[in-house]
Amino acid sequence: MSSTGTAWTQRFHPRPDAPVRLVCLPHAGGAASYFHPVSAALAPDIDVLAIQYPGRQNRRTEPPLTTVEDLADGVTAAIQPFTDRPLALFGHSLGALIAYETARRLTQAGTPPLTLIASGRRAPSRHRDENVHQRPDAGILAEIRSLGGTDARLLDDPEIQAMVLPAVRADYQAVETYRHPEGPTLTSPVLALVGDNDHLATLDEVRDWKRHTTGAFDLTTYPGGHFYLNDHAPAVIAAIRDHLATLTP
């Protein structure tokens, strides 16, 4: 496997000459490796940069960050050198919020993203009171199991629990304490993707993404819950490819 990049970015199939770059931001508890299959499927036409948050995998010795703002600051700084080509953002769940705040920062810097693809997340302005990050470890593990995105056998391993729980708790703290701040509205088009049975992001809440951009907005639903994309990976990857193709000369 070939992987290059900074601490924040993993490029599993580097294609620096590709006409468009796609930055992929993982969900709470997720890591850059989640997007290895996406990178393989989109190569060689799209150069995929998978984001690695502090506190996991090759960054496991670093303290995890606990706010969306700090995470977005880190992502923005890391991907700024890659804005010499059209650059799109894709984020799932927590990753969608970080992608949104990153898009705002890029827009303010004069390098707005080609598009924002927000998956499995209600609009930034749609707040719910949630407290998963304040639960004991068993409560956090129960929440992860209920979402179905992680192999339950891994969660039963005490060593793996000790390794991943600090980062997972920090990620939940980031997403649950986020409040949409005043700031620029995006000019980039937004594509929202969501499972039709996702209790964390109803269709009504997801449709409000259109309030956060002056560009085009579209919504695509798939059968399933919060991790619908695991069951419909080929269709989701095709949708991403088609969406980027409509925006790239």
TrEMBL record:
Source organism of the structure: Streptomyces mimosae
Keyword vocabulary terms for this entry: Hydrolase
Biological-process GO terms, alphabetical: lipid biosynthetic process
Domain of life: Bacteria
Domain Thioesterase TesA-like residues, every copy: 23-244
Protein name: Alpha/beta fold hydrolase
Family membership: Belongs to the thioesterase family.
One MF term in the entry's GO annotations: hydrolase activity
Record bears the keyword Hydrolase: yes
Gene3D superfamilies according to UniProt: alpha/beta hydrolase
Record field: transmembrane: none
Coiled-coil segments: none
